Amino acid sequence: MNREGSRTGGAGELVEQRGSAPPRPRRAGRPTRKEQHARTHEALLDATIRCLVDYGYAGTTTQRIQDEAGVSRGALLHHFGSKSELLVAAIHHIADMRLRHLGELVADLGDGPGALPRMVHAIRSAMAGPSFQAALELWAASRTDPQLRAALLPAEQRLGSALRVLFHQHAGIPDPEAARTAFESLMALVRGLELTRIMRADQTLADRVVDDWLNTIARQRNT
Description:
Layout: H1 2-20, H2 33-59, H3 62-69, H4 73-79, H5 83-105, H6 115-126, H7 129-142, H8 146-170, H9 176-195, H10 204-222
């Protein structure tokens, strides 16, 4: 009987040990399902941006995005049920990238005499490169696509608001209306310069145009 009790007790102890055992540690270097999901999600958004830059809006098909990201059709549809859903997500991804880039450039801007030129350089940088080129494709398409335009406006307003706050912090223009005009002229200037960059033989011209704008603003600050 003692032997039977011993066996029963042993089995009971075995059950207790199994129930209280810590979970098996994850193998080092292997991403969790959540991490893999996030990576695939971002890979699809990044692939969408590259396709917009390389093929334009009309040439950005779900097949090309899928191939560029290196995922299956099922994986793409698991993350985004339609091309429209994917493009809406890409719009906000582009805005996030540009805001993050801008934040890195102005992290230690300070309030010295060189703050305004550095701020303008940061804004020019945020309004250039692949993310801006992809945004241009979406802007052009949104002219005749109300659904795309409705998705694009909030993201652009979020970016514009961050740029406006940054500008007013460092422009040093006391008159609010003059400061507003200066900001809008800067936005039109840097967007136009980037849009026409591929058609300019003299790339230093853009720098001279911006320097001229800075000289004009310097006169407003001193009045």
